[in-house]
Specification:
Blueprint: H1 17-26, E1 33-34, H2 51-62, H3 77-88, H4 93-96, E2 100-106, H5 107-122, E3 128-133, H6 137-145, E4 149-154, E5 156-157, E6 162-163, H7 165-173, E7 180-184, H8 197-209, E8 213-218, H9 232-239, E9 244-249, E10 261-267, H10 271-289, H11 295-305, H12 307-338, H13 345-349, E11 354-356, H14 361-371, E12 373-374, E13 380-382, H15 391-404
Parallel strand pairs: 1-12, 3-4, 3-7, 7-8, 8-9
Antiparallel strand pairs: 2-10, 5-6, 9-10, 11-13
Helix pairs in contact: 2-11, 2-12, 3-11, 5-6, 5-10, 7-8, 8-9, 11-12, 12-15, 14-15
The chain binds pyridoxal-5'-phosphate (PLP).
The site of pyridoxal-5'-phosphate has 13 residues, from helix 5.
């Protein structure tokens, strides 16, 4: 009998976005539409490699200094600095004052995990992590596995399919002093609902009032509006003088998903704390994976450090939010044409890569089984899985699912 007999009856979790996307890939149906995928697809349904990324790869290939030696525990220092400047702004006072500790993570997920481990080990003011209802499921998993206690703040309003701003503020103001507050800077996953700049001011005030420790996840900078606007929430908190953690990802903004490029920045109250905390972060990394992957960070560094290549990247990136907005409109139009019951304005109002459709779990199951339309069971769809010609099919599928499985 195996020491791990319990696993004989286990099967891989099939309801994660990546699990569902893999099921979609294995589905031979010519009708299938994968709306679960968390990666950008062109309006023709293809993966996208940015021209700036191809050019950076070409340069790295041609550079005799390119090698496969280990990076240090904290990764590529040039990458870390450029990533911090992108997140916080090149003119950031915190950076100028040396108050930012940065490490290269294994993309956004790995950076969040190092951050969660750091808080679990070194943050003394609270063991409670406050997450949006709902949040990206990995936030829940990470905070819990890091030994923190999960609590929720109201975020998504089912009736308006927008932000429950008043509820959110009430919950933040009722949080115990020093609670860890997990926020998403833009393109909220899974709801597609972001606070307005004015609402961010209110959130900042509540965080200050309760001395909450903000852990900001900014996985979608440049994917919602542009690189500046999508960083505004992070910079608001940093410029207000709060200590906070920022997890950053280049999966979406450079299309480097599988290369695992990201960073974690601790903005500290003093340069001394930042220096020591950077050493502590590196110590945490040693038994996890020792050093992060090198190639993707080299691509990102090549792009960020070269003004011409950086401009090319920014031009290419600037096309993507517009493309996702077009697809929102196409889906909305198709839903209207087909006469799908209910109001669908929220598809137009929500932002970024995702829309929270309001479809129930049963309706999502029906969509997958009957129509080969794949989405996560919470009703989240990724707009980038849509192509114009398939919108009508998806709208017809929605209508059938709503009629077949009433909410
Ligand atoms: C909210 C959020 N945070 C972080 C990530 C991290 O992505 P990655 O690990 O590819 O950088 C994602 C990816 O989907 C996300 O949606």
């Amino acid at each position: 009998m195996s020491a791990f007999e319990v696993f004989a009856a286990w099967r891989p979790a099939a309801n994660t976005a990546i699990g569902i996307s893999q099921a979609a890939a294995a589905d031979p149906s010519p009708d299938k539409v994968d709306l679960s995928v968390g990666a950008y697809r062109t309006e023709e349904g293809r993966e996208l490699i940015l021209g700036a990324v191809r050019e950076a790869q070409r340069r790295l290939e041609a550079d005799p200094a390119t090698n496969h030696e280990y990076l240090g525990h904290g990764g590529n220092p040039r990458f870390c600095r450029l990533a911090a400047e992108l997140a916080l702004g090149a003119g950031s006072a915190a950076l100028a004052e040396g108050r930012v500790a940065s490490i290269q993570g294994v993309s956004g997920t790995g950076s969040l995990w190092v951050g969660a481990a750091f808080l679990s080990r070194y943050y003394r003011r609270s063991r409670v992590a406050l997450l949006s209802a709902p949040s990206w499921p990995l936030h829940d998993l990470m905070m819990e596995r890091a030994g923190l206690e999960l609590r929720r703040y109201r975020y998504y309003d089912e009736t308006t399919r927008g932000l429950d701003y008043e509820g959110m503020l009430e919950d933040l103001r009722a949080a115990p002093q020093g609670t860890i507050l997990v926020l998403q800077g833009c393109g909220h996953n899974p709801t597609g609902v972001d606070p307005t700049p004015q609402q961010w001011q209110g959130i900042l005030a509540a965080a200050q009032e309760r001395q909450l420790f903000v852990f900001m996840d900014n996985a979608y900078q440049g994917f919602v509006c542009d690189l500046e606007e999508d960083a505004a929430a992070v910079r608001l908190f940093v410029d207000a003088g709060l200590e906070l953690l920022v997890a950053q990802s280049f999966s979406k903004s450079m299309g480097l998903y599988g290369e695992r490029v990201g960073a974690l920045h601790l903005v500290a109250a003093s340069a001394d704390v930042a220096r020591g905390a950077e050493a502590a972060l590196q110590e945490l990394i040693v038994p996890m994976y020792a050093t992060p992957p090198k190639y993707g960070a080299a691509i990102a560094t090549t792009i960020l450090a070269d003004p011409q290549l950086r401009q090319q990247w920014q031009r290419e990136l600037a096309e993507l939010p517009g493309s996702m907005l077009r697809r929102r409109q196409q889906l909305y139009d198709a839903l209207q044409e087909v006469g799908v019951p209910g109001s669908w304005e929220h598809i137009l109002k929500q932002r970024g890569m995702f829309s929270y459709t309001g479809l129930t779990e049963a309706q999502c199951g029906h969509l997958m089984e009957r129509w080969h339309v794949y989405l996560t069971p919470d009703g989240r769809i990724s707009l980038t899985g849509l192509t114009g010609p398939r919108c009508r099919y998806v709208a017809e599928a929605f209508k059938d699912a709503i009629l077949a499985c009433p909410a």
